[in-house]
Amino acid sequence: MSIETAPKISWWNRLAHPGQFVALTRPLVWPLAALTAVLFAAGLWFAFFNSPADYQMGDTVRIMYVHVPTAWLSQFVYATMAVSALGTLIWRHPMADVSMKSAAPLGAAFTAMALFTGSMWGRPTWGTFWEWDGRMTSTLVLLFIYLGIVALWRAFDDQLRAARVVAIFTLVGAVNIPIIKFSVDWWSTLHQPASVFTPEGPKMPGSILTPLFIMFFAFTFLFLVLQLVAMHTEVRRRRIATLERRMARGSAA
Amino acid sequence: MRGFLAVLWRDLRLALGGSGDVLTIVLFFVITGAITPFAVGPDQALLSRIAPGIVWIAAFLAMLLGLDRLFRPDQEDGTLALYRLADVPLAAVVAAKVIVHWLTAALPLIVASPLLAVLLAMDFPTFARTVVSLLLGTPALAAFGAIGAAVTVTTRRGGLLAPILIAPLCVPVLIFGVGAIAMGGGPDQAGAALLFLAALSLTALALSPFAAALAIDWGEE
């Protein structure tokens, strides 16, 4: 392989080769998946059997252990996409394209899950499935942005060209999301303010925080595993498309 | 600067001459507004309460409708490729097009809005505020629209995709646009909303030509 003998090979350059990337990261998938499973088992055990019911909300408080991590991921995945978009635009790193593309549907799924669990939780506690409250509305808008990005990816035939255009749009969205969040908060707010990361420390008892943090890591690792697998699939899909094109050209000649 | 003005004049002449697109967009705006009473009932009190929102939604939809003609005709006849090679920076060309888009797809709506004000039983102070908020807010819609149109110009199904992409980004414009009109109870925040709206428009107008030009330049090969 010429890539092995080329001068000045850093791990960064090596990752730029899709085959090398898959070869380097495939061994990570199973250990990470196992870690995710362990975290989920522990987190769910804590969430269901070893955490108190809320004195006001009762057992419905356990929805939080799914709701809060997915809501966090809905923003974290967009950050991943924005960083990958920078990778595409500045370094033209081939794997940044792939990472951007496979993150979009995952982000949409986590955002939809956060909205779904939120409305399931809202029904017994607020008495309504949906309220036009600041945080809920901005999460809904975020979901629309994710879906728009997925649609934009599908509109292009040439994925390399698509990557650059989507990267620009992702960054435009990244600039806009804080503005949307601010404007929606200005418009209407009912949701409780941030209560885990506050200047005075967490406002929750440890018995609830422990399962919350475990689930937090479980979902984050779940995202990592799914992202890696989706990237491998995307690399393989592109390889197949290239081979098909080469075959079609061969049979035409 | 001369190139910028040349593009501006060319697009303005093309938009106003012949094709009748401007009239279609104005018609769409008036019909959208006029059709709402059929859906919500002819109650005057209710209509005059929600009239600013209806006018904003109608203007928003009409401007999204006009997005496709921003770059697509130039893409189809190859003018866009020439712009890319021209001495004038592409961002300046895009800026000229955004201005023309505003002049031909937003200004006529504002001129036609008295018609909707009568149909929707708006009183004069509300109507005056609506016109001011439309004047300040529609430039932002035009600027965001340019990004959507530029991102989708090389795709075949772009016409449908651009509004989907742009609508979520326009949420703040709608919020502050309608917020600047609201005369209901509570503290009067209309002034603050108007300032936010102006800030949004200025920022979007300043930055979007560069993003749109980048998208056009890198979307082509």
Automatic annotation (TrEMBL), chain A:
Keywords: Cell inner membrane, Cell membrane, Cytochrome c-type biogenesis, Membrane, Transmembrane, Transmembrane helix, Transport. It is found in: Cell inner membrane; Membrane. Its main location: membrane. InterPro entries: Cyt_c_assembly, Cyt_c_biogenesis_CcmC, Cyt_c_biogenesis_CcsA/CcmC. Signal peptide: none annotated. It comes from the Bacteria. GO terms for molecular function: heme binding; heme transmembrane transporter activity. The chain crosses the membrane at residues 28-49, 69-91, 103-122, 134-153, 165-188, 208-230. GO terms for cellular component: plasma membrane. It is a multi-pass membrane protein. GO terms for biological process: cytochrome complex assembly. Residues 34-191 form the Cytochrome c assembly protein domain. The keyword Transmembrane helix applies. Required for the export of heme to the periplasm for the biogenesis of c-type cytochromes. Belongs to the CcmC/CycZ/HelC family. This is Heme exporter protein C.
UniProtKB/TrEMBL annotation, chain B:
It is a multi-pass membrane protein. It is found in: Cell inner membrane. InterPro entries: Cyt_c_biogenesis_CcmB, Cyt_c_CcmB_bac. Its main location: membrane. It comes from the Bacteria. GO terms for biological process: cytochrome c biosynthetic process; cytochrome complex assembly. GO terms for molecular function: heme transmembrane transporter activity. One of its GO terms (cellular component) is plasma membrane. Keywords: Cell inner membrane, Cell membrane, Cytochrome c-type biogenesis, Membrane, Transmembrane, Transmembrane helix, Transport. The chain crosses the membrane at residues 12-40, 46-67, 88-111, 131-153, 160-184, 190-216. The keyword Cell cycle does not apply. Required for the export of heme to the periplasm for the biogenesis of c-type cytochromes. NCBIfam families: ccmB. Belongs to the CcmB/CycW/HelB family. This is Heme exporter protein B. The gene is ccmB.
